[in-house]
Amino acid sequence: MIFEIVKSKGLSHKSYFIGSKGAAAVIDPRRDVDIYLDIARAHDMNVELIFETHRNEDYTVGSLELSKLVDAEIHHGAGLDFEYGNPAHEGDIFEIGSLQLEVLETPGHTNESISITVKDKDASDDVYMVFTGDALFAGEVGRCDIYGPGEVEAMAGSLYDSIHEKILPLGEGVIICPAHGSGSVCGAEIRDVDITTVGYEKKTNPLLQKTRKEFVEHKVAERFYIPPYFKRMELNNQQGVDILCRLPQLRSISTVELQEMFESVQVVDVRDPESFAGGHIPGTLNIWNEGIPAFAGWFLNYKTPIVLVDQDGSRIHGVERYLIRLDYDNIYGYLSGGFSSWFKSAGPTETIKTCSVHELREEMEDPSIFLLDVRKEWEWEEERIRGSHNIYLGILEKNLKEVPKDKKIVVYCDSGYKAGVAASILKINGYLDVTNVLGSIMAWKMAGYPTSGD
Questions:
Q1: CA angle, residues 278, 299, 406, in degrees to nearest 5
Q2: Any idea what the Cα angle at residue 15 is, between residues 3 and 94, rounded to 5°?
Q3: Can you count the helices (H) and strands (E) in the chain?
Q4: Where is the Rhodanese domain positioned along the sequence (predicted)?
């Protein structure tokens, strides 16, 4: 048996390649599918089956793309009317080599959610592993708020039943292969491990220690942000998207060309916040390269062409893949030579102030400072720097009225990266005196400075 995990950085998404005796299946493929072709080629296998555990919300699935290239069947849960592929029902069985894959209907995250068990018939009739999608993670369970707050209670009850009646009875030693890992927006406290087992989750997963009533109450009380791009991903993954067959060829744009087209494109600087603060093109949005999967969908539209800027061009290919997975086919090009070529050609630049936590500590009593925490609301409630105001980064642009323009805006987050994005948004919107606290609350606590909380 061949089994490989394909991780998508930033999204914390995990897809899977599994095969036996020349035949293979892919579970929850991403849109840039070349990696599955490479794995198949390396093991002399043909991809015959593609499974989607649910209609994903946080990225564009690559099932149609992969199916076009390898002529494989697509299967997904029957609880939703997809415009492509085939509905899979409880008890449906598929075979690839010595492997037997069986569908379990496990609604709760979404109505059509399925899990897929795997048996290696050459070894045993027992279930060996299960692909759980967004039903059960390592240390967590899936979100139940996708259909809105009015449906959370019913969805939570369904999820509890799915986990306790379908997944946990499979056996203590069964390997659990979830669709996401630590850092995903699809779960609050997912552990940072690749795989886990039924027995380990039964012992250690705090959500599995609750009664059904306690479980539902916990899920109803949960708070998540829903990025605006989720709706587009849901439509993409129900209706299907354009097939690329290859990544687009990005245009190399000179400094002169970028200056001429600046007002008609979305310019994103993907350098780290300290580099961006030291100098950048005025009016550009800063999202560090590995933050693109999490935050591009909050701020970039799908119509205006996107131009990327980094230091020297070395990060563009990875960022391009991140954006393609989010359906940003409007990537236009990149600044040739990166920001280095811009300032060498005497292009206009501006800076953002930075400060250490020690400098912030010394200026805490300055009444002209507005201290802005752009972490999630519940993180701020739990622990914060005294006197700070909270607006989550994703909703900052829509809540700028809460940020005074007549004060010095000092921004912090976990470690300074999200604060860098926030600082660039504030600068774009006319805030002249903006400072990013490098190291943010992580450095603040390392320095031994006090925090407060509710």
A1: 60
A2: 65
A3: 15, 22
A4: 261-351, 365-453
pLDDT digits over 284-337, tens only? 999 999 999 999 999 999 999 999 999 887 788 889 999 999 999 999 999 999
Residue 196, token pair as written in the block: 């886990």
| Token pair of 20 as six digits | 């036996």
220, 213 contact by CB (below 8 A)? no
* Residue at a domain's end among 239, 273, 305: 239
Predicted TM-score of the model (pTM)? 0.90
Residue range 70-89: average pLDDT? Answer: 96
Same domain, yes or no: 8 and 133: yes
Four-residue CA torsion sign, 71, 73, 76, 79: positive
Q: Which of 341, 413, 333 is nearest to 373 (CA)?
A: 413
How many distinct structural domains can be found in the chain?
Answer: 3
Provide the residue range defining the domain that includes 410: 353-446
3-state helix, strand, coil in the chain (%, to 5): 35, 25, 40
Nearest CA-CA partner of 336 in 268, 267, 252, 250 = 252
User: What token pair was written down for 436?
Assistant: 């990013």
Is the Cβ–Cβ distance between 93 and 100 less than 8 Å?
Answer: yes
Q: Which two tokens stand for residue 88?
A: 């899979």
**pLDDT tens-digit readout, 368-410:** 999 999 999 999 999 999 999 999 999 999 999 999 999 999 9
Task: Centre a 10 Å sphere on the Cβ of residue 383 and count the other Cβ atoms it contains.
Answer: 14
Place of tokens 């010095």: 408
Select from 291, 310, 344 the last residue of a domain.
344
Q: What's the pLDDT score for residue 454?
A: 60
Nearest to 140 by CA among 101, 193, 87, 96: 193
Kindly state whether residue 245 falls inside one of the protein's structural domains: no
Considering the domain architecture, whether residues 91 and 227 belong to the same structural domain is answered as yes
What are the tens digits of pLDDT across the range 84-127? 999 999 999 999 999 999 999 999 999 999 999 999 999 999 99
Give CA–CA dist 35/128, Å, rounded: 25
Residues 241, 261: Cα–Cα separation, whole Å: 28
Residue 254 is given by DSSP the state: -
Q: Specify whether 273 is located in the same domain as 416.
A: no
Residues 289 and 213 occupy one common structural domain: no
Neighbour-count burial of 355, counting CB atoms closer than 10 A to its CB (0-12 exposed, 13-18 middle, 19+ buried): middle
Amino acid at 328: Y
